Fold:
Amino acid sequence: MDRQTLSQIGARFGTPCFVFDEAALRARMRRIKAIVGDSVHLCYSIKANPFLISAMKELTELMEVCSPGELVICEDLGVAPETILLSGVNKTLPDILDAIRAGVTRFTAESPLHARLLSSASR
Structure:
């Protein structure tokens, strides 16, 4: 993104403002993928940047969500459930069961409690 474009954005929206260059993101992700190859699966953690999901779901193999709200955002944007990874230290059994009902099959266990919850949810 060149200086003139950034100046125009600043004039239109005011400053400070958050600007993201999707073309640069795509180019960087292609370079990363070329370096790591197909044996490494890239995962995008949506966190505070769900506006990048549309681009990142084409560029990564997985989308990490850490809350029921992030899962809903992914569902609303058409992220394939088999590409969603439910992570996060605060997930509860209802969160896990909701994710399973949505088609999510990948989870992290950050503690023995999470391992027990995931085990009980899979029965």
Observations:
- The two ends are 51 Å apart (CA to CA).
- The mean pLDDT is 92.
- Helices lie at 3-13, 22-36, 53-59, 68-76, 93-102, 112-121.
- The first helix runs from residue 3 to 13.
